[in-house]
Amino acid sequence: MERQLISHIAHYDHPIAAPVSEQNLERLLTRAKLAPGARILDLGCGEAPWVLRALELHPEAVADGVDISEHALTAAQKAADQRGLSDRLGLHHVPAADFTGTEPYDLVLCVGSTHAFDGLTATMQDIRRHLRPGGLALVGEGFWETPPTPEALTKLGANLDDYGDLSATVAQAEDAGYATVYGHTSDLAEWHEYEWSWIGTLTNWALDHPGPDGDAALAAARDHRDMWLNGYRDILGFVTLLLRRTD
What we know:
Helix content: 40-55%
Shape: globular
Distance between the termini: 46 Å
Oligomer: single chain
CATH superfamily of the domain at 20-149 and 157-188 and 237-245: Vaccinia Virus protein VP39
Order of helices and strands: HHEHEHEEHEHHEHHE
Number of helices: 9
CATH architecture of the domain at 20-149 and 157-188 and 237-245: 3-Layer(aba) Sandwich
């Protein structure tokens, strides 16, 4: 099975696709305090849970969502139709780094998708080109909660310098010309809800679809469980930062 389809299935019961609760997602979006008619961009939007909720919270806003997964964008369009938001949301099937908007945005989101730009620094630089002066970025990124062991790095397929600690991560985000105006650090309950949902949803799907695809999905679920439980659990953290562009 292709990786994008596995991810689509695994996130069915947790479409936020990050270790963030619905309550904290809404808190982060509300703190943006967008003006009427705001323009919003979500880079690596997936099934668009963040940008769809932003449109509900800001009924005069318009938005664009960008992702490379056809499965995710199909689900995003369906969700937008069901919630009556499709007339205010444009979806774009292109790599996030290649997207160019027609006008600057008031808020640019990139939550859990900094890999699309090869890391946080490049992400913040790319977001800046989309933002109006004084505009806001909402960025979710991993950080080392505790120093990773060599075994954890091997499980993750990561290097020590892929992330910093929380302080270094905030400084790295700001270095491209931003000031942090709010933030949320995911707690243990959010991590467990996210991980068990990912693993369990994919496992259930695999058991309901015996055959090569089911076998591949079950193997992916077990590999992910092992990577989490015996790898990055209590080592990898996640922070979502609301940052204001400085000029």
